[in-house]
What we know:
S-adenosyl-L-methionine binds at residues 38-40, 90. It comes from Methanolobus mangrovi. It catalyses: 6-carboxy-5,6,7,8-tetrahydropterin + H(+) = 7-carboxy-7-carbaguanine + NH4(+). This is 7-carboxy-7-deazaguanine synthase. GO terms for molecular function: 4 iron, 4 sulfur cluster binding; carbon-nitrogen lyase activity; magnesium ion binding; S-adenosyl-L-methionine binding. By secondary structure, this protein is α/β, with parallel strands linked by helices. The chain has one domain (3-230): Aldolase class I (TIM Barrel). It has seven helices and twelve strands. A ten-stranded mixed beta sheet has the order 5-4-2-3-7-8-9-10-11-12, covered by helices on one side. Helix 3 (117-123) runs parallel beside helix 4 (145-158). The longest helix is centred in the middle third of the chain and has 14 residues, at 145-158. The radius of gyration is 17 Å and the shape is globular. The two termini are 29 Å apart. It binds S-adenosylmethionine, the ligand Nc1nc2[nH]cc(C(=O)O)c2c(=O)[nH]1, iron/sulfur cluster and magnesium ion (MG). The ligand Nc1nc2[nH]cc(C(=O)O)c2c(=O)[nH]1 is lined by residues 12-16, 26, 41, 88, 111, 233, 238-239.
Amino acid sequence: MMFAPISEIFCSVQGEGPYVGYRQAFVRFTGCNLNCNYCDTPVEATKVCRVEKKAGSNVFQNIENPLSSDEVSEIVKSFSGLHSVSLTGGEPLLHAEFISSLDTGIPLYLESNMTLPHMAKKVKDNLSYVSGDVKLLPHSLLEDPELHLDSTIECFRVLKTTQNRDCFCKIVVTKDTPVDDIEGIVGAISGYISSLILQPVTQKDMQPEPGYLLSLQESFLNDIDTRIIPQTHKMWGCL
Ligand SMILES: C[S@@+](CC[C@H](N)C(=O)[O-])C[C@H]1O[C@@H](n2cnc3c(N)ncnc32)[C@H](O)[C@@H]1O
Ligand SMILES: Nc1nc2[nH]cc(C(=O)O)c2c(=O)[nH]1
Ligand code: SF4
Ligand SMILES: [Mg+2]
């Protein structure tokens, strides 16, 4: 039996990327190997996992951490009408063995920072959807920027789109994201992904100009299906 630290489990609709609006169970792992300057989510370990049993009720039941894979599978299976189960965090790939031990019968949708290719190998055959971020962070936030890019490319190679798995890429763009960095990484992974989503950062003071995103999109469209989609769940205030 595997155990993992999880901060929350709830049912909502996917608010980001090409699957926006699909009904999902969200399983949020704690712990992360990065420290993105725009991160909107607490990643610290929590004593309990809050579980919203009825979607949208804002009523939570607390379960002590860590949770077993059986407990998590049971909670997820209690939600109805699910398209898939979003594994998010924090960084879910830190808990690859736990993910492999989940048994829900519902397709798994991984939300990852794509920096842990060795962990990705352990779960790749269990995943139906991979929402893979490319983290273009200020170099001061990275231990080894070159290794970071190599790991990202290797992670996309491991989790690439196949007959059984859709892998797409999201890049959170701020006004400080360098065009050259985006162009370089997209060129390296475009063969592995079904689409590229440019996700403007949600904090107003960090947002890029619309014209900047539109010109980026224009430059990628020859190579890859490129869309600009902001976070939609924040607009109407659901989880
Ligand atoms: C909180 S992360 C957890 C999963 C994984 N660690 C990752 O970063 O992909 C979930 C998604 O939220 C996005 N995100 C986090 N903060 C954001 C912000 N301020 N604006 C827009 N997207 C954000 C991340 O880029 C990622 O796509
Ligand atoms: N509705 C909704 N959609 C999401 N898509 C990615 C999320 C995440 O935090 O990983 C997220 C989230 O937290 N809520
Ligand atoms: S990788 Fe994801 S969870 Fe970790 S700090 Fe960055 S956005 Fe937050
Ligand atoms: Mg979120």
